[in-house]
Amino acid sequence: MKNAQRTKKNATVELQRSVLERLATVFKLLSEPTRLAILHELRNRSQSVGELVATLGTSQANVSKQLRILFDHSILGRKQSGNQVFYEILEPGVFGLCAEVCRLLNRRAENNGHIQYDI
Amino acid sequence: MKNAQRTKKNATVELQRSVLERLATVFKLLSEPTRLAILHELRNRSQSVGELVATLGTSQANVSKQLRILFDHSILGRKQSGNQVFYEILEPGVFGLCAEVCRLLNRRAENNGHIQYDI
DNA sequence: ATTCTAAATAGCTAATTAACCATATACCGT
DNA sequence: ACGGTATATGGTTAATTAGCTATTTAGAAT
To answer: Angle A12-29/B12-29 helices, nearest 10 degrees?
Structure first.
């Protein structure tokens, strides 16, 4: 309700909805294994599209497409260098989110099995 | 790589993939505004399907379906009480995730505008 | 200019899914 | 049993999208 209070009356539901949509958008960005793999690959160093294609097990076109999605949402930045394009992490916060999901899954695994997640 | 080291050789890529898929599954659960709205509603108290239908702006069938998805993934628990079914949060960790996304969006908003998110 | 390489895009298909309507199931009160 | 209410499910539609192949764009080197 804190948000709603900052807005004009009767906009409560709509505001919340738009906030929920923004949240959902971020979660959606991270809801594909290939995109998570890209982020994981770029965590320690920026890489060219070609390097990513070599590492991930999918086509150059697909890597390019997923990179674009992450770039369009400002999760990644790009730097052209001659023939190639290097992508880098612009929003390290995504790793905090991944870590938190890992913790959630691990808490759960403790109750059942024992596999530990760690991205 | 820490995971891979705990497994037998040559299972590196597959393991990582399966971990990424589990992560992605959690993110996907939270990537729909309606499901986020349900979680938000249930945060402070468990509610019946009917109550949720009255609050959220969507059909009973849809609410029921989304509840089932969250229930199947053990995010929610259900308790039958006579005619009605009450759902409750089983995995409060989701709110930590939402809060972290809010912080991420707020950090971003500081650089541009000023709207503050708070779920 | 032409060729080679890197990356992006267009067009396509198959799969997923949110939301709807209609119906079924299940519990309650009478 | 029967009607009423609460929830779940079946079936459909429309929209989204990951991944593919083929093509295009653009820079580098000869």
So the answer is: 170
A49-100: per-residue pLDDT in tens? 999 999 999 999 999 999 999 999 999 999 999 999 999 999 999 999 999 9
Sorted by sequence, the CB contacts under 8 Å of residue A52 that are 6+ apart come out as A38, A41, A42, A63, A67, A87
Which tokens go with B93? Answer: 């960790």
β partners of residue A80: A85
pTM of the model: 0.89
Spatial contact of A117 and A105, defined as CB atoms under 8 Å apart: yes
> What three-state secondary structure class fits A18?
helix
CA B66 to C1' D6 (Å) is 17
Do A20 and B6 lie within an 8 Å CB cutoff?
Answer: no
CB of A49 within 7 Å of some strand C atom: yes
Give yes or no for CB of A27 within 7 Å of strand D.
Answer: no
Answer for the pair B93, A99: CB distance below 8 angstroms, yes or no.
no
Q: Is A78 within 8 Å of A71 (Cβ atoms)?
A: yes
Measure A2 CA to D11 C1' (Å): 41
Dihedral sign, CA of A33, A39, A43, A46? positive
| Closest to B57 in 3D by CA, of B40, B34, B39 | B34
- Compute the C-alpha angle A76/A77/A78, nearest 5°: 125
Contact at 8 Å (CB) between B75 and B39? yes
The amino acid occupying position A89 is: I
Strands of chain A, DSSP E = 47-48, 76-81, 84-89
